[in-house]
# Entry
Amino acid sequence: MRGDALVALLLVAGALGSYYLYSPIPDAIEQRWKLLVTDCFFRSLSHLADLSELLGVMDYMGVMMFITKLEAVVPVSDERVQVEEEVFDGVQVMVYQPRHRGNDGDLRRAVIYLHGGGWCLGSSRMEPYDRLSRRMVEELNAVVVSVEYRLAPKHHFPVPFQDVYRGVKYFLQSSVLASYAVDSQRIAVSGDSAGGNLAAAVAQQLQQDPGQLVQLKAQALLYPVLQALDLNTPSYQQNENMPILPRRLMVRFWSEYLTGNKSLFGAMLSNSHNSPESAGLLKFVNWSALLPESFRGSYGYSAPLTETRGGGGALDTLTDPRASPLLVPDAALQPLPKTYVLTCEYDVLRDDGAMYAARLRGAGVDVTHRHYPSGFHGALMFVVWPTDFDIAHRMTEDYVQWLEHNL
Ligand SMILES: *[C@@H]1O[C@H](CO)[C@@H](O)[C@H](O)[C@H]1NC(C)=O
Ligand SMILES: *[C@@H]1O[C@H](CO)[C@@H](O)[C@H](O)[C@H]1NC(C)=O
# Structure
């Protein structure tokens, strides 16, 4: 751990001394200086990853995994929270539950949590996720199941989704719920970023699963990724170079999730990855119709090209609702449970979340959309000193409160 910290320090120091000092951090962002330093670290690591891949030392995501390792913890039980590593139908999960079961027969709520990291990075064993799970256990008296799904690029879509879905289906069996004293009427799925993508996809697929008896009471999507069709929404354009998740990195995550074909990355960067088959889906991501004026800003709408066929072998997958849950008709949205959507102004994914909130509301779903005008992507992760941000604590508080009142 000490070696890792030293490397981190060197990276930050090196970055600070270089051109990174000029960074487009908007005035509206709080604790700007801290975000600038944090971003220097991320950018430096990304450059190092590019270099390493170029030299054939290690692939890009292999180097980026350093972030996950830096924050790795071994989740352990304490006097209030009991933590166990389990295997649900072949899928690794961490189960957090209240140490004391309360009165005999009292059932608890449950939150199934899916971590973020662009389907390529992250782990439920990172300190921010471990803390969030413990907090939910304590404040909600809930059982938290944090799924350790397999990651891209080693495992492309649909493997990460399938891992999650298998684990969820296993947990939702009456006998398993009973063994954890969970009330089958009070279960939520939730996740941040790519985890929000998986959570939204899980909620949809459960509704369409004919044999599925137990359904979810709520879904809580924290700055989720929801579609791969239009990577030029106003938020993608406005936040192209924003800290933590610049557009290039998000596009990279998408392409690595969907395929090993490197040419998809370039096609997605120029938003020319669609095919004629995507044309019928454009209406589901038409931000000109789905976003409020304050989000559209002065950006003029032009539909993504669909004649270009730049997606190569990934044509089917990028519009698969399990990868792009926004690309479904209203009929698939109607049966969805009560929903919480968190979006941040300074986030390429802002419009994905905002469009999903608008479409769900239009379909009659009870939606709470919390938009943070000074928020940036990934903020919820920044709760650990020295990269702790006030906004992370406010977001966490509001999210947990929503679960308290709606789950
Ligand atoms: C998108 O919405 C706008 C405004 O509502 C409409 O004029 C346009 O035809 C739509 N385009 C597509 C591709 O759905
Ligand atoms: C990769 O995608 C391109 C089109 O974007 C296609 O021409 C090429 O055949 C694909 N390569 C493989 C190995 O599938």
Observations:
- Residues 73-228+316-406 form a domain with the Rossmann fold fold (CATH 3.40.50.1820).
